[in-house]
Amino acid sequence: MERRAYLTGMGSAAVVGLAGCMGFLEEDYDVGMSPTDFEPRDLTVDVGTTVVWKNTSSRGHTITAYENAIPAEASFFATGEFESEQAAREAWNTGRENDGIIGPSETYEHTFEVPGRYDYFCIPHESESMAGAIVVEE
Question: What is the pTM of this model?
Fold first, then answer.
C-alpha cells in the first residue's frame, strides 16, 4: 500500500512539473476578459510596462480609456486605435467596420509611459459595469 501511495504522489508531482514546461500554467496576458468583467479589475505596473489584455470569453469586447480619467500628459488608448473616447463610441454606435472589437482569444496591448491612474471600460458592456483601472507607478 505504501508503494502505491508513493507512486500516486510521484505521478501528481510529475504532472504539475510538466504543466509548467508545456505552458499550461503560463499566461500570455496581464488582464483577461470574462463575459462582463476585466480580470483583474485593477492592475498596478511600473512606468514603461506594456500591459496585454486577452479576450478570454466568447463575447466581443473593447478596451477604451475614459479620456477624463487618465493622466493629462498620457496618450489616449483604445482598441481600434481611435484617437478619442468619442471616436470609439461613435464607431461602436454606428456599427462601422472597425469598431474596435476584439474577439475571443485576441489580444490588445498598450505601453504606459506616464505615472498615474488610467480608468478604462468595454463599450458594449459598460452598462454591465465592465470597467477596470491600470495604476502606473514610478
Answer: 0.80
Measure the CA dihedral 65/66/71/77, to 10°: 20
CA dist 104 and 109 (Å) reads 15
Q: Specify the number of domains making up the chain.
A: 1
- Over the stretch 54-98, which tens digit does the pLDDT of each residue have? 999 999 999 999 999 999 999 999 999 999 999 999 999 888 767
Residue 133, domain extent: 27-137
Residue 7 belongs to some domain of the structure? no
Task: Quote the pLDDT of residue 128.
Answer: 96
Q: Is residue 16 part of a domain?
A: no
Distances in Å between the Cα of 20 and the Cα atoms of 24, 53, 135 are: 6, 21, 29
CATH number at residue 32: 2.60.40.420
